[in-house]
Structures are given as C-alpha cells and as structure tokens.
Description:
This protein has 212 residues and is mostly helical. The protein is built from 13 helices and no strands.
Amino acid sequence: MRQDIQSSAGVRCDLKRLLALDARLVPVSRVAGEVLPRTRPAGFEGLARIICGQQLSVQSADAIWGRLVERQGTRSAQAFLALDEGVAMGAGLSRTKYAYLKIAAQAVVSGELNLGGAVRLPAQDAIAALTRHKGIGPWTAEIYLMFCAGHPDIFPVGDLALRKAVADAFEREDLLDVRNLVALASRWAPYRSTAALLFWRFYAATRRREGV
C-alpha cells in the first residue's frame, strides 16, 4: 500500500519496512537520527522554489526565495508573470533561472503543464511529463514528486549530496557513479523516497550541512 511520505507516520512506517528490507541501512539510520518528511506546496509555488534551488546551496536558494516571497511573485504562475523582470532579477535570480521560471509559469497558465495531473502518473511517466519543459530536468522533476506530491518511490541519483552520503555510508567511492547508485537503490524499491530522506539526514549528521 502506498504510504504518505508527507507525514511523519508515513515516513516512520516506510523506514521500518526499508530497514527490514536491507539490514545494511540499520547503522546508517543510527547515525542519521530521526528521519522527517520534506514537504513543499504543490503546484507552481513548489516547483518554482525547486527551480530556484538548482545548483545552489540551501542557504543561497533560501535567501533568493525569501526575497521573491517579499516581492509577492511566488504564490502562483500568474503572480510570477505579473512580476517585473527587473524586480525578479533584483531578488537574486540569474537570467537563466528567470527564463526557466517564466517558461514554467506560462506553461502552467496555458494548461500545457498540468502539475496536478502529472503527479497522478506512475513515476517515470510523471518525470517525462515534467521534463518536457525547458528548465525542468530529472532532478527538479524528482524533487517535485518527492517533496510536493509525496511520491514514495523516487531516488534522485542526480543529487550530489545524496551520492556523497551513500558513498560515505558504504565506504564505496564507486557509488558516486550514477549507474552504480541506480543499481544499488533499485533494491530499496518501493521505499526509495524514504531511503533518500534517510541518506540526506545521514549527510547532514556526518558533514554538518544540509543536502537539499
């Protein structure tokens, strides 16, 4: 049965099943401590925040997002399109990020990008539907499905912090390679989203910094 990984109870339930599935994760869990859900609003607001965070540290992304919120350009696609480009750039957005957000907002308004419909699809179909739009790559789509839609079986191997965490936990540098990590993570289905949450907590505990 699909669990709601946007609730603490859902994450605890899936984590218990995950540890039973792969006992090698038990010591990882001890180091990581409590694993909590990561949630963001569904719809354009959640997607926009993830796009803002592409290839940035958590602190930098949060700062830019906070300034966009102050300018009231984040609550909806329509609100972002109404925001003056200079004002948006003044919040710290790069020209590329502004272009990506504008493309996404226009697609949402036109109905070409149906975020509500996409999240009801199987994971790979949903990722394909999202990544058809410029500026939404696999990492962005996967994080959206995890944090905004609560999908239980996503493991975003494109996330560098996640790769480093798994490599550290297993003491295997070869797991920094995406193909090797995909093969390993396949063993954690159908609880791969909870596995990702576990390893991000492990990363935070061992490296003293947040991954996403």
